[in-house]
Amino acid sequence: ICFAQQPGASSDRPIIYIRNEESGAGVMFRSFQSTFGITTEEISKNPAKWDAEYAKVIGDKLLILDDEAHINTVQHLKRLFREFNPSCIIFDQLDNVHGFSNEDKEHMRIGQLYRWARDLAKEYGPVIAMTQVDGSGEGQEWLTMAQLRESKTDKPAAADAIITIGR
């Protein structure tokens, strides 16, 4: 999220963060923490101060959108991306986006979805897709590619890089 602070970042081409799982308040809270390098306690002591600072530093460079706005379909997101021309797209749980045919076959839907995200990267810029591991990753420190949820689909093939964070 602190990408929005980088030199050259502008509200003309904002970062769009599609939130399909975490609460908007939680994402904003972590955004404050990463932007300013501050603790929960520091934010809690003076939230108005940090709201104002955040507005100055980030402003309209980051758009955090959630499913409450009914954006969880490929068709709606395509319109949104054309309108805002994002410099970076972040999906918190890309797997939760729908709108492709063959939705009754999950492996095919996931494959189409990740190929679509790769095409978005060619058109707009980096696409970061957060996903989960399957049950075999529970409590593990080091995760493997085979442990990604739906890893037998085109999900890993569509990625230029995969970073895993274990316990």
Describe this structure in words.
It is a single chain. The chain has a four-stranded parallel β-sheet. It has six helices and four strands. With 167 residues, it is of the alpha/beta class. The longest helix is centred in the C-terminal third of the chain and has 18 residues, at 106-123. Strand 3 (88-92), helix 5 and strand 4 form a beta-alpha-beta unit.
Task: Please render the helix and strand layout as text.
Layout lengths: L14 E5 L4 H13 L3 H6 L1 H11 L4 E5 L7 H11 L3 E5 L13 H18 L3 E4 L24 H4 L9
Parallel strand pairs: 1-2, 1-3, 3-4
Brief rundown of the structure:
The chain is of the alpha/beta class and about 170 residues long. Helices cover about 40% and strands about 10% of the residues.
Oligomer category: single chain
Give the structural class: alpha/beta
Nearest-angstrom radius of gyration? 17 Å
Could you list the spans in which at least 5 consecutive residues all have pLDDT below 50? none
Can you tell me the overall shape? globular
Share of helical residues: 25-40%
Cα(first) to Cα(last) distance is 22 Å
What does the largest sheet look like?
A: 4 strands, parallel
> Average pLDDT, to the nearest integer?
81
Q: What is the count of DSSP helices, taking H or I runs of 4+ residues?
A: 6
The portion of residues forming beta strands comes to 5-15%
**String of helices and strands:** EHHHEHEHEH
